[in-house]
Write a structure and sequence with these properties.
- The protein has 123 residues and is mainly α.
- The protein has one domain.
- Helices cover 75% and strands 0% of the residues.
- It has 5 helices and no strands.
- The protein is elongated and about 55 Å long.
- The N and C termini lie far apart (54 Å).
- The relative contact order is 0.09.
- The model has no long low-confidence stretch (mean pLDDT 78).
Amino acid sequence: MSEEENRFEEAAIEAEFETGYREETREEARRGVITRLFRIASGSLITVLGVILMPLPGPGLLVVAIGLGVLSRDVAWADRLLQIVRRRLPSDSDGRLPRSSIATMVVLALAGIAFSVWVVFLG
């Protein structure tokens, strides 16, 4: 490992110790860093996928909300943006997304995918 990689790893481990989760050992802190980086990467990927799906029929806004939900555990701006997205999603009296809305979005997404496959391969 180079000197710069060592400094980066040490800084990441120290930051992990300061999160308040009380890692007991350096190995636990290292796993915490890896877990956090994985959550940030996967949340970013899901959010970008949702943005790409927005103009298509299907659950684009729902996928964005899921991606922001994953990101919001580690990134403060994602939590604030998630609250805005939640207000735009249809919800029932409990604030949950109705099953009918989820079913409609999934059916529209599958229909869009089926139509695209049909046009590309059979059209």
